[in-house]
C-alpha cells in the first residue's frame, strides 16, 4: 500500500464493532467485563480506548513501526519517551531542538538525573564526540526548528547501533508522509501532532511509534503509569486530519517552492533557510532521506525592526506560534517559540532578532507572495 492510500486505509479504517466507515468517538472511561478479567480488549481508557487505539494503529502503519501511542501533547509524548531512561543516563540532543524540548530536558528532567549534551548533529562528528560511558540515546530533530538544519538519520542510527544507543527522531516537521525515520534505522519516532498531522489548528496532541514490540511494551507501561493519554475526541480529529495529510503536504510544498523562489531574489532578505534549496548545506541528505522538504521556511531580514515591520503588515500570514496548519503563520522565533532559550545561546545558534519563520499554508500562493511583497516593501 502506498503512503497516500495508507493515510486512508491504514490502521483500523472502519469500526470493527458496527462497520461505521469512521471509527467513532468512544466517549467512555470504562468497559463492562463478562466475569473478572473477561473483556473485549478494553478495560479502562487510560490503558486503552478504541478511538485512540485506531489512531495509534494508524500512526504505527504510517511510520512502519511495531507500536503506536497517542499523548495529550507533543511535550507529553517527548516526556514519556524520556521516562524510558534512568537517573544517571545521558542523552545527546540536536542543539536547535524545539524550545519546549530544550526546556523540559534542562529544567525538569535534569532534576531526575537525566543528563544531556546539545550538539550540532548536522555534523555527526559532534555527536560522536559527545558520547560518554553513560550515554543511552541520540535524540535528533530533522529538519530543525527554526533553522531547518538536516541530520543524516541513517548515519546517526548507524553510529548509535555501533555504540549500543537508541536513536530517537522528532519527525514533526516532515511528517510520515515525507520521511519515515524507522526505515532509516531509528528506534523511536515522535511527533507533535498539533502541527501537520492534525493540520487544522484545532488539536494539541503527541504521537510516538516504536520500531520494536519490546520498546513498545516499555512505552505502554510508561503511558499507562504516567497517564498523559489523548482523549477520544482529539484522537478522532487526528484520524480525520491524517486522511488529507498527503494532499496537504503536496500542496504545502508547491506553495513553499514558489515563496522560497520569491524570497531568495528579494533584496531585503539576507538569508533564506530551506532544505529544498540546492544551496542548503545538507540538501543532498534531505533529498536522500525524505521525499519532500516541507512547508517551513525561515529568513533573516537583518534586524528586529525589519522583522517587526513584516509581522505588523502581513494580512494572510497570521502572527502566531505553532505551524503546519492550513492557514499560513508567521513568527519571530527569538521572541516567541524560542524565548525560553537564553539569549546568549540563541545567538550562538543563529536565531537572531531579525529571523522570521513562516509556516506556509494552503492559501493561493500568489496571494501569499503579494502579502510578503507588501510587507517587505517594493
Ligand atoms: C510543537 C513542537 C513540539 C511540542 O509539541 P506540543 O504539541 O506543542 O506539545 C515538539 N517538537 C516540535 C518539532 C514541535 O514543533
From TrEMBL:
PANTHER family: CYSTATHIONINE GAMMA-LYASE, TRANS-SULFURATION ENZYME FAMILY MEMBER. Pfam families: Cys_Met_Meta_PP. It comes from Bacillus spongiae. InterPro entries: Cys/Met-Metab_PyrdxlP-dep_enz, Cys_met_metab_PP, PyrdxlP-dep_Trfase, PyrdxlP-dep_Trfase_major, PyrdxlP-dep_Trfase_small. This is Bifunctional cystathionine gamma-lyase/homocysteine desulfhydrase. PROSITE patterns: CYS_MET_METAB_PP (PS00868). Keywords: Pyridoxal phosphate. Its cofactor is pyridoxal 5'-phosphate. The keyword Ion transport does not apply. Transmembrane segments: none annotated. Coiled coil: none annotated. Belongs to the trans-sulfuration enzymes family. The lineage of its organism: Bacteria, Bacillati, Bacillota, Bacilli, Bacillales. SUPFAM superfamilies: PLP-dependent transferases (SSF53383).
Amino acid at each position: 500500500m502506498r503512503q497516500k492510500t495508507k493515510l486512508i486505509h491504514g490502521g483500523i479504517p472502519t469500526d470493527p464493532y458496527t462497520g461505521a466507515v469512521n471509527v467513532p468517538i468512544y466517549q467512555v472511561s470504562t468497559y463492562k467485563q463478562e466475569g473478572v478479567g473477561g473483556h473485549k480488549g478494553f478495560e479502562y481508557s487510560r490503558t486503552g480506548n478504541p478511538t485512540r487505539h485506531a489512531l495509534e494503529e494508524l500512526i504505527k502503519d504510517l511510520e512502519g513501526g511495531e507500536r503506536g501511542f497517542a499523548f495529550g501533547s507533543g511535550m507529553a509524548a517527548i516526556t514519556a519517551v524520556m521516562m524510558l531512561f534512568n537517573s544517571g543516563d545521558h542523552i545527546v540532543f540536536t542543539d536547535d531542538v524545539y524550545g519546549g524540548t530544550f526546556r523540559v530536558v534542562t529544567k525538569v528532567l535534569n532534576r531526575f538525573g537525566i543528563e544531556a549534551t546539545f550538539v550540532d548533529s548536522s555534523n555527526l562528528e559532534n555527536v560522536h564526540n559527545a558520547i560518554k560511558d553513560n550515554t543511552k540515546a541520540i535524540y535528533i530533530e530533522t529538519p530543525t526548528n527554526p533553522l531547518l538544519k538536516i541530520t543524516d538519520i541513517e548515519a546517526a542510527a548507524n553510529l548509535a547501533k555501533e555504540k549500543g544507543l537508541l536513536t530517537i527522531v522528532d519527525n514533526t516537521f516532515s511528517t510520515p508522509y515525507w520521511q519515515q525515520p524507522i526505515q532509516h534505522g531509528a528506534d523511536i519516532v515522535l511527533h507533535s501532532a498539533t502541527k501537520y498531522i492534525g493540520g487544522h489548528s484545532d488539536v494539541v496532541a503527541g504521537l510516538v511509534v516504536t520500531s520494536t514490540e519490546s520498546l513498545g511494551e516499555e512505552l505502554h507501561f510508561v503511558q499507562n503509569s504516567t497517564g498523559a493519554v489523548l482523549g477520544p475526541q482529539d484522537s478522532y480529529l487526528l484520524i480525520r486530519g491524517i486522511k488529507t495529510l498527503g494532499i496537504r503536504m503536496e500542496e504545502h510544498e508547491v506553495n513553499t517552492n514558489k515563496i522560497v523562489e520569491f524570497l531568495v531574489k528579494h533584496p531585503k532578505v539576507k538569508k533564506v533557510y530551506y532544505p529544498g534549496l540546492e544551496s542548503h548545506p545538507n540538501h543532498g541528505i534531505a533529498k536522500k532521506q525524505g521525499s519532500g522538504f516541507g512547508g517551513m521556511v525561515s529568513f533573516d531580514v537583518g534586524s528586529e525592526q525589519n522583522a517587526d515591520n513584516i509581522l505588523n503588515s502581513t494580512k494572510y500570514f497570521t502572527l502566531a506560534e505553532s505551524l503546519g496548519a492550513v492557514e499560513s503563520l508567521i513568527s519571530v522565533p527569538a521572541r516567541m517559540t524560542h524565548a525560553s532559550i537564553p539569549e546568549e545561546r540563541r545567538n550562538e545558534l543563529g536565531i537572531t532578532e531579525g529571523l522570521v519563520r513562516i509556516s506556509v499554508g494552503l492559501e493561493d500562493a500568489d496571494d501569499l507572495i503579494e502579502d510578503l511583497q507588501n510587507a517587505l516593501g517594493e
